[in-house]
Amino acid sequence: MSNSNAHHGPVVHEPSPDAHAAYRHAYDSAQPDPGRTVVSIDLEARETDWEIAAGRSVRAWGYNGQVPGPFIEARVGDVLEVRLTNRLPEPTTIHWHGLRVPAAMDRTGMVQRPIGPGESFTYRFRLPDAGTFDDRQGLRIEDGRRWVYCMYRLEIRCFECVF
To answer: Is 54 in a helix, a strand, or coil?
Structure first.
């Protein structure tokens, strides 16, 4: 199957020309509810050795040198601000599975350019829901060998405020 349309040529997914303006608006609009706070975290996506069994490690991609990634705890109404620095050999992003976030703060080629090697991107959004959310990938086969690809997990727990 081809990636082209008979009438319009190849299908290209890329951010719209106003993607930067949408990002600035989403970033600036993310304000904590009264009595809530901004939860800031720095994440570095990089290769690491992941011990999958006693004495057995594989090369993996993770956050801050760990698999799964760090645990982040926040409350409904807090603002989560995540600065992601990419130390991987190829572009990456974070997709906030199940979290209701502005499109400009979620991983999709339609609204966000992938973060290139050596680049950083700051995600910032208000946490509207309680729950546990994560980002995880799978395995990849390359050059006839199997290796863990982007096998990380990021948990965010938003607890309902109790007064």
So the answer is: coil
Hunting for tokens 């050999």 — which residue is that? 89
Taking alpha carbons only, the member of 30, 23, 26, 2 closest to residue 111 is: 23
Q: What percent of the chain has pLDDT over 90?
A: 28
**Helix, strand, or coil here: 162?**
coil
59, 92, 162 from 87: Cα distances, Å: 14, 9, 39
How many CA atoms are closer than 13 Å to the CA of 60, on its beta-carbon side? 23
Buried b (16+ CB within 10 A) or exposed e, 76-107: bbbbbbbebebebeeebbbebeebebbebbbb
Angle at the Cα of 29 from the Cα atoms of 42 and 124, rounded to 5 degrees:
15
> In the prediction, which pLDDT does 34 show?
95
Q: Which pair of tokens denotes residue 158?
A: 């938003």
| Beta carbons of 19 and 104 less than 8 angstroms apart | yes
Q: Report how far residue 108's alpha carbon sits from residue 111's, in angstroms, rounded to the nearest whole number.
A: 6
Domains of the chain: 32-159 (2.60.40.420)
For position 37, what pLDDT does the model report? 94
